[in-house]
Specification:
This protein has 429 residues and is α/β, with parallel strands linked by helices. The protein has 9 helices and 18 strands. The structure holds guanosine-5'-triphosphate and magnesium ion.
Length: 429
Amino acid sequence: MFLDDVRIFVRAGAGGDGAATMRREAHVPRGGPDGGDGGRGGSIYLRVDAGQTALHDFRYKHHFGATPGGRGERQKRHGKAGDDLYLAVPPGTAVLDGESGALIADLVAVGQEVMVAKGGRGGLGNTHFATAVHQAPKHAQRGEPGEERWLRLELRLIADVGLVGLPNAGKSTLLAALTNATPKIASYPFTTLEPNLGVMDLGEDDGRRPTIADVPGLIEGASAGLGLGHAFLRHVERTRILLHVVDGAAKDPAWDHAVIRDELEAHDPALLRKPMLVVFNKLDLAAAREAWPAFRAAMDAAGTGVVAISADDGEGLPELRAAVADLLPDLEGLEAPPDPAGVVVHRLEAAGDGYTIEREDGAFRVRGKRVERLTNQTNFDNEESAERFQRELRRTGIDAALRKAGIRQGDQVRIAAYELEWEPLEDDE
Ligand SMILES: Nc1nc2c(ncn2[C@@H]2O[C@H](COP(=O)(O)OP(=O)(O)OP(=O)(O)O)[C@@H](O)[C@H]2O)c(=O)[nH]1
Ligand SMILES: [Mg+2]
């Protein structure tokens, strides 16, 4: 099965804890602090890899984690950084936030990458906290947790030319005739169950190598979810031109043509503004040859370009190639990503000093990037670190805001994953 929509969970590595050690040397009776910093945790990136065509790597494995940073050690030895993890995705992968559905990045070109979970910062060792008055601090920061989130990956194939049409119109036969691809072809509808891609040769002196996507046949109601084609309509969104293949030997080729037009429009009216060429197929059959003059007249009257071919015996293919060559942008244009595209990388979340306080079943919930980081990096088992944390709450005004919100001794304060009991500082004035 072709996988083009998956959910994955990514968790970056936590930063290593900073060390709170004191120098111990035979000839130095009371050494100062010598705790090294923790290493940063590994981050997770998605990167476009030309070798990938579908999201198969994510079929069975949905959870991905990067390694944590090492702990700081005595003698100011810093912990090792965690390894970053790169997950390969195919060109055309849209990355969406798993919860809000917001677009985080649209990865189009090979090599493009986006960080989806940032590794936690390593905690600072106690050497950073020595001051003239406090020369032997026992305080060291803990490493920050790594970011984690659910993501949705949605593949929107990137091809220069998209083949659309009713089932059995001959799209796969045409793909095979124009390119090196060898799709399955059969005389029944819905032969194609997953998109096929091929590279087209425009002739010896044309350096362009456009790609063609053959997608499952569309039927009436496809835009509303009927048939198989619906899930694949988004794959034609990003093609530069559309070839609309019509079975010339069908009962009413003009009606077939109108059905597909309506479905494209219902899915996204912008699809009808793409350069489109109608391909009247199966010209080798008598029924098609008979229907062709009237069909051509109708297309001419509507100002729609049309070419008659037989994908089977090759009649009309040189004309079709020439028409496609005319519609496509030049070499430089072909190398630029098709519209709408671009690696739209949105910041995952806004950083900042702001915070909010709300009541949460009897407790006080404090939210804010900065204060959550401070809390995560505090080792509450260490008295000195815990005191420092309290002073920091006071310095940033959060303590005053909590008092204003009516906090009393013994009330619970929740910050990040912590639940703390609020106590006024000893030296409170
Ligand atoms: N006589 C004739 N038959 C053709 C021609 N092109 C395709 N066919 C036949 O039409 C049938 C359907 O062809 P496919 O290429 O599988 O059609 P499709 O549009 O890909 O169909 P789905 O994948 O089901 O949407 C097959 O039996 C082909 O051999 C043609 O030019 N002439
Ligand atoms: Mg097919």
